Amino acid sequence: MATHFVFPRQPTILAGRDDFELSHNNLFISANVCTAHVIPDDIDIMRFDDALARTLSVYPLCAGRLVRPDTIDQPWKIRLTNSGIPVQIIDSDADQVTSAPDRLVQTPLTLSPSIDIFALIDTEGTSDVDLMKITITRFTKLGRTSIGVNASHCIADSTTHLKFMRMLSQYYQGLDCSDPLPYYEPQASGSTDDPSMAHLPQPLYDPTARPFPWDDPSICPPSSLFTFRMTKDQYEEIHQHITEFSDMLDEPVRLSRLDVLIGLIARAHTACDPKSPPITKVMHMINQRGMGILHKDSACNGLMGCLTQSAPYTESLEHGILAFAQQVRKTLLTLQDTNVVRGYAATVTNVQRDAAWRKKGQAFGLIDRGTIFVNSTYKFDYLSPHFGYEGRTLYYYSHPPGARFVKMLPPNPRVLPDGTFQSRKGDVEVVFFVPTDKEDEMKGIISRYAKTLGVSGEIEFPAASS
């Protein structure tokens, strides 16, 4: 094992600045974005380092240091120190890249390095914690290489992280970058006093009222990562079945496949935990770039949590899913109003500012009973950073532990016995944690509901180990 450092190529896109002011929506200090891309070959370290230096010149915040303000009203900043990014190289003789290679979400994601989020959020003055780390693992028996990248959430959400990885991949191949450059100019502020906010629920529960860290075993009961996968056709079959009942809605609304899937997952959580209040709301994470305040190519974070109105619980499976899906869609339609987005964003970011100042984490895993937290990146092309091995690259993702925190993603291609890759484009992989003693029960519920909703074939439950 060896570690070297790669520095941003000069001048960077922020040349001439000493620091970058973080808006409140970037204060996801207690979380990381962590991925690993596995290619079916070795990687040229010199070419990789050159591509990384070029990429860091466009994303220099990755090589900076977080600065805590002296008072709550002052801005947090990234000091543009142009520090080196640690790149660790490991040679492994393992027989497989992970213990569960058919599951794209891994907890922990051992292919990527760790960032000390607790030291980061405990910062006084200028932190000495790296905001990005990289681990390259060369699997000598398999002829594969993993490129694991971990970034603090204060400098990158999934959108920014994916663009960073795609630029790194394209520069490694000697190509020009296909994405627009990130936008670093100051962002406008929203107002919580806008009249259109009056009828809206509080869009983000107060994380300062929650214990931290959110993955403390004394707070969260023992749980296991639960994964199921549906084909594109199965995903569509559920949607078609539920929308046949749309005449039951109190007002017409066109439901998406994701709306319906969220309703199904909410219903399954309720069935699996009958002693708790039924799930009637969803905290939906959306990308607000280009919607009201943030530029469409804004750097760092564009996430915003939006809470739906309560959906009535009914005994009918179809009607219950339909009612839940309707509330999801109505909330998203409301967010087409720029003023509403501004109000939501102002409320959310003020909460994040207060939490960061008090050294509290975003306690996503402790969301109120009766609510699920959904962060869907189903439409993200995670396989586009392929480093020249299009169609033959796998990716893996991390997931924070916590009850009722649901993630939807596009699955990896299927690796056939002869070593070839079969695309699963259009399929969906759903991931969340369940109490360890409820895994089999949840599997039965999902399978039973799928049959009731007219799904052909069996729902796939990837193995936790192989």
Automatic annotation (TrEMBL):
InterPro entries: CAT-like_dom_sf (IPR023213), Plant_Fungal_Acyltransferase (IPR050317). The keyword Cell inner membrane does not apply. Pfam families: Transferase. Keywords: Transferase. GO terms for molecular function: acyltransferase activity, transferring groups other than amino-acyl groups. PANTHER family: FATTY ALCOHOL:CAFFEOYL-COA ACYLTRANSFERASE, TRICHOTHECENE 3-O-ACETYLTRANSFERASE. This is Transferase family protein. It comes from Thelephora terrestris. The lineage of its organism: Eukaryota, Fungi, Dikarya, Basidiomycota, Agaricomycotina.
